Amino acid sequence: MNQSQQILLARLLAHRFIPRSDPLARRALVDESFRETLETKLDEMGLVLLENPYAEYIAIGLQPELNDWVFGEGENWLSNNMGLPRDAIALLVVLWALIILPKRERQIARSETVGDSQGDMFGAAKPIAHGEEVAPGVPEDAVYADFGKKLGGKMRFGANLGQLARLGFVVRKNKMIHEGPLLDLMLDYGKLAPRIIDGALAEVLKLNVEVVQDEEADNE
Question: Residue range 162-191: average pLDDT?
């Protein structure tokens, strides 16, 4: 492992995430040899590189098979390593569904329309969609009106939202909730999206997604 790879690993461990536009992050995404060495070292540590072509950041996470060993087993098993209570996790899933799902649908549709970037040498180093695909924010008051009482009331809602912001999942600005660096990385779209789209939140979220999409159409 060379110094550049050591620096990248140290930065990921210290900062938890770095933007894909960072030179070392970009190299990890386009230089096959560099990435193989990086992933080998992560594997030795029980970690994996977290990235997807739709996200603006990269990060590292725990290998799934080590969850029980790290977080405990049975009644002591923790669903996360960030100290999030259940109502905070529920709020996180709701925000992911309101912010990331509509954005991802647009990104996939755009990718299918213009063709993917596999022929582009640097395609893997950048998100498939760019600035115009940044997820719009959702109003805090609207989210609370729809879900607040089910998620512990006003005090718990505010406290949990603040914790999600501190952890990098969301950004709060002018009473709006925006996508944070980790929101599109730490939740597995392939596993979570079908459960939400076909599950209990489907009907509840449908109206919210349609409202967001209508607003976006009006702004185009």
Answer: 90
